[in-house]
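quick one, 991 residues, struct below
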Amino acid sequence: MISRLTQLPTLRINPVKRLPFTYKGKKYQGVSGDTLATALYANGIRIFSRSLKSHRPRGLYSLNGECANCLVEVDGVPNVQAETTPLRGGMSVKPQSFMGNPEWNLMGFMDKMDWAMPAGFYYHGLCKQHKVWPFFQKPIRRIVRGGTIAPSFRMEGHYDEQYVNADVCIVGGGPGGIFAAMAAAGRGLRVVLLEARPWLGGFFDYRSGEYTPGVLLYTRARELAGKLEETPDIRIFRRTFVSGFHNDNHLTAFQIGSEAEAFHERHIEIRAKSVVIATGCMERPLLFDNNERPGIMQIDCVHRLARTYGLVPGERAVFSVGHDLGLEAAIDLSDMGMEIAAVADSRPDSQNPRLIDELANREISFLPGWTATRAYGAKKVEKVSLSKIEGQRGGEFECDILVASAGLTASAGPLFLCSAKMAYDTHTGFFLPKNLPPGVHAAGRMLGFHDPFSIEASGRLAGLLATKDCGAADIEPLIREAREKLDALSGPSRGAKLVKAPVTGKKTFVCFDEDVTIRHVNQACEMGFDSVELVKRFTGAGTGPGQGAISGHNLPLFISQYHTDSSITPLPSTIRPPLVPTFLATYAGSRHDMLRRTALHESLKHENAVFRRIGQWECAVCFSGDTSCRGEIENVRNNAGIMDVSRLGKFRIFGPDAAKALQRVYVGKISDISAGKAKYSAMCNEDGCLIDDGLIVKTGENDYYFTTSEERAGETSEWFRYHTRYEKWDYHMVNLTDAFAAILLAGPNARKILQKIADADISEEAFPYMGYRTFALKQNIEESLPFAGQSQTFGLEQRIPVRVLRPGFVGKFSYEIHVSASLARTAWDLLMKAGAEFDLRPFGLEARNVLRLEKGHVIANRESEIRTTLNDLGMGALWERNADMDTIGIPALRFTKHQLGRMKLVGFQMDKNEASCLTPKDGAIVVADDTIQGYVCTARYSFTLQSSIGLALVESRLAGEGNRLELFEHDMNRDERLHATVVSRPFYGEN
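---
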C-alpha cells in the first residue's frame, strides 16, 4: 500500500480510520473518505479494466466518472463507477470486462485485430448481412465481456426518494454556485444547492495558489463553504448528481448516502422557479498515440490524488498540458517530492509568467509549443515522446506518470438537456450558451472565467438574476451593480486550440469507452459523414457509459478541422438524460408497500376477513378458509349478504354544462335521466371499446352524482378534462371516492333488513329496481345520564344520512348504500345488527365475482380488450343512436355495428359429461380446426346452477347460441381438451 501524505491541510480523508474491503477475493484496506478508485490505487492497482473491443489495459484517468475505465463489480452489482463511489467497509470488489484477469487478459490479441474493425464494421459486415448476425451475436457478446448480473441477484440497501420545491436551484457547489446561492438566499428565497462531491468549494478546494496575499485558494473554499452552511433558507445536497433537466425547471438527481444516513441512494426531483447552472469545467483529453495507457491522467486527477487523498501518484512525471492549471499542478507535486521530468505546454504563449518563474526555480524543463506524441509501455506508461506541435523537433522522457490535458471545456450537460442553444466560442474554445431558456442562468468557470474574483462575481450576478425570476422587488440596481463589477474584472480566458498531436491516429483514441480512434473518425468522414451526429452514430464515439464526456468536445473540433474547405463551425453532439447513470433500484425508490384501506377495514377485520392486495387497495377477498366461497355465495342467494364496495369511484359533477360533459364521455342519453332513477351507462374510447361503466343519477338541477369502477376512480377527472379541453363549458367535478364509503346489501332478505332501520318507505312501489333515494338509517339508543342527582334513562335516536341505489350487479334485490366515510363503521354495525335475524353475513370479492358472473355482468378490461367494441360485448343497447350526439366512441360503434369477423363475448356452460364438470382456467384457449379462435375471460363453478359457467371472447362464427366450444389448457397435471356450449346471458334469473 502506498504511504500517504497525512499532514496536508487540503486532505478530505481520515487516515486513522481504516476500512477493509476485498478485491478479487484478496483483502485490502482503504481509509475513510476514499472512493473505490483511490482505495484501489493506494493498494497498487494500476489496471482497472480492459477496453470494450480491443481489450487494451485501462487505468485511472479521471476522478469524475467521465469514462468507463474504472467500472467494477461491487457486492454483485456490475458497472459501478469506482471513481465516484465512496468506499464502505466490507465491500467485495471485482474487476470486469476481461477474460482471465485484468493484467493478463486472454483477449489481448484483439488489439492486433484493429484492421478488422474499421469504422462502421458492425453495419457493413454484420447488420447489412442480416442472416449472419445471429451467428456472430453471442460470440461478440462473450468477447465484449461487459458486466453481468446473476438472475437470482437481489439488490441490497435502502433506496429512497424525495420531492423538493424551491424558488432557486443551484447546480454546482464551487465558488460560482456558492455566490449564486448566497445572493438568492439573501433575498429570503428558498434555495436548493446540488453538489456532486462530498464537500463544497469546487476547484478551489485542493489548490494551494493564492486567492489574495496571505489567503490560499483552499482556505477561501472552506471559508465560503462555512458561510453557505450558516446562511438560512439554503438546503444543501452533497454527493448529488444531476441526471436530468426537463421542462419548467424540473430537475432530477440522485444522492449517494453517507454512512451516517439511512439510505444507500436517493432519487430527488426538484421543481424550481429559477435554476443556476455552475457546474464548472472538465478537461479536454489530449489526442496522441496510446493516449489511454494506465499511468496517463488528467491534471485534476493527479492533483486531487495528492492534495485530497494524500496519494503521490508516481515517482517521475511528464506534463503535457494546455492550461495554467497544469503548470500549477506540476509545481505543487514537485514540492511534494515528485520528480517532474518536463512540462510541455501546447500554447506557444499566454502562460502566467509567475508560474514559468516557479518552474525555472525548481529546475523543471518547460517546453512551450510542445505536446506529447506517443506513450510507450505495454501495460502502463514507461516513456513518452514530446515534440513541437508542428512536429519538427522531439525528444523522449522516461516516466511512470504522464499528465495529459489539451485544455478545459465547459461541463455544460445540464444546459444541453434544457434545450439551451450552444455555440462554439473561438476565444475560449468552449461551447457556450447562446440563448438560455427562461428562468435558467449560467455562472462560473463554465463561461470561460478562470480568475477567482470573476468566477465569484459571475455567480453573484446569476443569483441576482434568479431572484428577479422569482419576482423579487427592487433588484435591478443590484443586478446593474453586479454586472458592472463583473465587467471590470478579468474576462474569459483564452483557451488552447490544439486538438491533435502530429500523429497518424491509428492508436489515438477519441472515445475510450468504445475504442474509437482518430483513424475511425477519418474513415467516417471519408465516407461522407460530415456532421458530428452522423459520425457519432457510425463510429459509436460518445455512446458508451461516459455519455460522451471524454469525446464530447474533441469529436466536433476534429471533424470541423477535417473539413478545412468548409465554412462549417463546430457543433456539439446531442446529450440525453440520464447525464450520470445510476441504479434502477434508485429510480424504483423505497420498498414501502404503499396501499390503501377503506373506511370499513377494521369492521371487515373484525369479521375475520382474508385480505389481498388488489391494485393499490387491500381488499377482503373472502371470510373463511374456503377459497370457493360457497357459503358466502349461497347465503347471498338464499338469505342476505353485505359487502364493502367503498373502492368504487364516486363523483359529483355540477354546473350549467354538467350534462354536456357527461354526454361527451358516456354513451347513454343523459337528458333521459329522471329524478329518482339511476341510469346505467358506459364510457368508451375513440375506438368504441369499453373502458368503464357505472351508474348516473340526477340529484338536482344541473347536478349529478355518478359512480365508476375501482380502477378508473383516479383517472376519471382527467378523462373528462381531456375530452372537454377545447370547450368553454362551465362545470365543476368533485372526486368523492374517499369522502364516501359504500356498502352493498344483497339477497332476498335485503329489503326486510334495510326497512327495519330506514326512515322512508322502500317498498317495490316506492323504491323500484334501478331507483335512487336519499334517506337516513336510524336506531334507538337507551343511555343513562345523571339528572337531578339521580341516574335517568333516556331514549335517543341515531340518524345516519345515506344515498341508496338499486343496481342489479349481483342480483335484483341489491341496495348500494353510500354513506359518509366517517359514519361508515356505524352504518355497517347498524346493518349487521338489523340483519342478525336474517343470517346476514359478509361476503368478499371472490363471491361477488361468481355472483356477478351468474348475472352476466361484464367487467371492463377483464371481459373486454383493445379489439372489442361495446357491440361485440353484447352491450350495444347502451349507446344512443341519436346522430346529433358528440360522444367519444359513438362514431366507431356506428361503423362497427354490423361489421363481420369480429371477436364476440359469449356466455358458455360446461358440458355435463365432462369429468367432474371441470372449470377451465381464466385465459384458456378456444380452438377450432386446430387454430386459436378465442379465449376464456372468466370462468367459475356456480353452486346455484350446479355447473361451471364463464364468459369468453370468440370469433363471431362461433358466437351463436348452442355452438360447441373446444377449450384447451395446459399445465403440469393436465393436457386435454374440454367442451362447452354457448348459452344465453344472464345465466341466473330472479323472479
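The chain has a mean pLDDT of 90.
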